[in-house]
Queue: 4 jobs
Job 1
Amino acid sequence: MANIRNIELKAQKVAEVSEKLQKARSVVLFDYRGLTVSEVTNLRNEMRNAGVEYVVHKNGIVRRAAAAAGIDEAVNGYLKGPNAFAFGYEDMIVPAKILKDFIKKTRKCEIKGGIVEGKVESAEFINALADMPSRETLIARLLGSMMSPISGLAIALDRIADKLEQEGPAAAAAAPATAAEQPVEAAEQPAE
């Protein structure tokens, strides 16, 4: 009876991890050896605050879950020795970025590889991913580049309005009338 119960618990765990693998935009696998309890707690808190789930699973369970999720068997090469997993559900860059910054600070642990959008990737790819700007930064840059022409137009119109105010009310009244008359004069001129 105990074996059947253990098998059911393991099958449930495999299904749970498989669902997480399918739902996650990125999963970073890393060797956590050498970390103190306080360092692990700090890393776990930092990840939790960023919407990343930090967990330690048995490699066999992750291996079965990856197969059930349809992930390439290449992930099995990374499932040796002690591993921790950082699941990023919203932003695929955040888990790699947090881990890379943590490794720079502590000079401990090592990124082994990862799974990004269902594809197994190397440690080099995960490190390159960590160097990319975050989603929020990319959106801010895009919006900034889109707003640049609009703000330039607004500044030009504001300067024209200031100039007209400085010249006085008579010049302000004459400027729109002159602008309205110009197309009529151009239309009255014979074509060459």
Job 2
Amino acid sequence: MTDNNTFSNNRLINWFKLSSPSTFYPVAGKLIPFFWGLTALFGVIGLWISFFVAPVDAVQGQGYRIIFIHVPASWMSMFIYIVMAVWAGIGLIFNTRLSAMMAQALAPIGAWMAFLSLWTGAFWGKPMWGAWWVWDARLTSELILLFLSLGFIAGETAPAGRTMGHAGAIVGGSDDTAQAKKRIMRSCGIHVVDSPAEIGKKVKEVLG
């Protein structure tokens, strides 16, 4: 029983070691060719089925095939944004550098997926709806998602001395200290607590 507990603790410790960039990067570098291979394989299979195996739609004709790119791109843009928000939240709460790096790496991919969704949606909408763009709830929300991703990227890439640089650092991390980030947020009128235990007290103070 003791051996099993020791083995489980060792595995847990090994997983926690990957939270450090110095240990995560070598592992991720070794996995990159594997994931590139899977991406190419499933991409070719998906495109082959979409354009050559799937039957022609009785109403929309061949033009409907663009949804095989449009819909997955839309899903991925939303999914990546959720994952990016989770990583950014973890980095903000626990001040882990790798979490901020993950959010920063996901932002350009999410922005590209949102742009691809809007671009393919326009090509599909013109013959089907008769317009390149309509203020539909789905299209508008996807456009907002693109702006959010671009805003995050702008905040991350702005010079550290600029306001946008600090705004991106609040979510994505930077070379500044946690106390410096808190001072920036307080100067912007944002209520900040030093620990989760103070959240209730701060809420009462704001609402009272």
Job 3
Amino acid sequence: MDTQSPALRNQPRQQRSIETVARIVETAESVFAEVGFDRATVSEVAERAEVSTGSMYRFFPDKNALARAVADRYEAVITEVFNSVSEVLVDTSQLPEVIKLLIDGAVALQEVHPGYYALATAADPSDTTAPTYPVRRAQIDWFIAVFAKLELKASIEEVTAFAEICLDTTRMLIHRLPTDPEARQRQLVEIQLMMEAYVTTRVETFTQSQDS
């Protein structure tokens, strides 16, 4: 976790404090994944992280701050995934490869960060105060940057709607993947095909608009 996270009331300086904060955030993510944000309590997180409530409140003023810290940790990792994809994306012919990379990355992160996905799935996408909103905003901005890189003619509103469909559809479907490995892989292939068809069709529309 970034020790300069705005979710923190006080920034940890000593190694022991840094490790305590990391353990609290990891525990909070586990609790959010198991019971959801609404049912989770600060006291439960503190107990399972084996820290006092006083130590908890030293760094996190409330449960919302814990959720924001979970989101911050996820954002740091997903940003690396998006940046790695940006490096290989040169033109629209690479979209199928890019879609697969993004979905594979999202699936892997869902397994490692189930608490974030629980928060994001429960959040109102239009709620700018939601702990997960900064992550969503950063992902939408990535799509806007990609469209600019590929010189596709589309308004900010069009790209935003496009990004929201890609992000929300993928997240919701991944969240509901079966646990059986074979069934999970079959559905994952279908998700990739579905998103490839949608993205390819929409990008062709934007390309045609650019040529007209």
Job 4
Amino acid sequence: MYSLILIFLIIAFTLALLPQKAHAAAYSFLDITASISGSGGSFSLKGGNAPEGITVTPDNDMTETVTGADGAIMHSLMEQGRTGTVTITLLKTSPVNAQLQQLINSQSRTSATWGDNVISIRDVVRGDDLTISQAAFVKQSDVNYAASGGTTAWTFRGRLSAVVLGAGLSR
């Protein structure tokens, strides 16, 4: 009886030491949720997205580096505010273009409603969670008419209130 238990424990211990099979990492835009909420409307930013999708770009460097006369370096953590730019690139035929156009038309009537949007972007599989608050349209989107429908890009600038990049779900 004890020998069976001992054999079982040896096998279990040996299996535990074997390298685990690695899983391939995967990403899909289908796992992304994105929305905007502000004076004049709240809606999804998904639907007819171009391959460029959604890009979030911080505006400021977080460090300043000074090199001394002897070659030593010093880094300074800069707290210049965590602002950033969000670009949503849509197909020309996306219905989200009309929603964003209505939103910019509504908000540009008065400064009381300007820059009051919140953009939320989440990757529900990887665990990413970004919130951009106090977001304002940078400008009216460019409008192109060509042989190919192309894309329409909408750009916002705001405060990167929360940025969490997840490690993904384990299988």
